[in-house]
Design a protein that fits this description.
About 10% of the residues lie in helices and about 25% in strands. It is built from 2 helices and 5 strands; from the N terminus they run ααβββββ. Bound molecules: copper (II) ion.
């Protein structure tokens, strides 16, 4: 079974437990439950840039991810960048929300991973749609896995946490 299939199987196992994340009683339950309905799920590969820690100062998981070609924007359609490239371009971004089942044990910055990303667009009280995202599964990839960081967001200042649009 390849890693993508394993991720899918892990995800399915979770789903078939009928909301396994709901019953654990941890503080992230409410956050995680917003992804139960109407969220997009993406299978993404990348390199760990930074691991989360309680600090001080606290840090989030940061991943340099490959392009997500089918990334859906706020209007429910696949996002198209200003240069015509579809989806979310390759970038380094922070992933503050991790599913209860996610373990990063044994992983280090520089390690290649495959992960499942859930994204949900929610409207703020003022009517602005903003994306929320959760890493719901992480699988290590072999060191020699060939990742493609083409179609990268053009360098900006600061380069991190800069989303090109959606
Ligand atoms: Cu991104």
């Amino acid at each position: 079974m390849n890693s993508k299939a394993m991720l899918a199987a892990a995800l399915l196992a979770c789903v078939s437990l009928a909301g396994c994340s709901k019953e654990s009683g941890s503080g992230t339950d409410d956050l995680a439950s917003i992804y139960d309905e109407g969220a997009q799920t993406y299978h993404v590969r990348g390199v760990i840039v930074q691991l989360p820690s309680d600090g001080p100062p606290p840090t989030d998981l940061r991943i340099h991810h490959e392009r997500i070609p089918d990334f859906v924007g706020k209007d429910g359609k696949v996002f198209v960048n200003s240069d015509g490239v579809t989806g979310m371009k390759s970038m380094t971004m922070a992933f503050p929300e991790l599913g209860d089942e996610v373990s990063l044990e044994g992983l280090h910055p520089g390690d290649k991973i495959a992960f499942v990303l859930k994204v949900k667009w929610l409207e703020t009280p003022s009517g602005v749609k903003t994306p929320h995202w959760l890493v719901s599964a992480v699988e290590p990839l072999p060191d020699d896995a060939q990742l493609n960081f083409g179609d990268t967001v053009a360098p900006a200042t600061p380069p991190e946490d800069t989303h090109d649009g959606p």
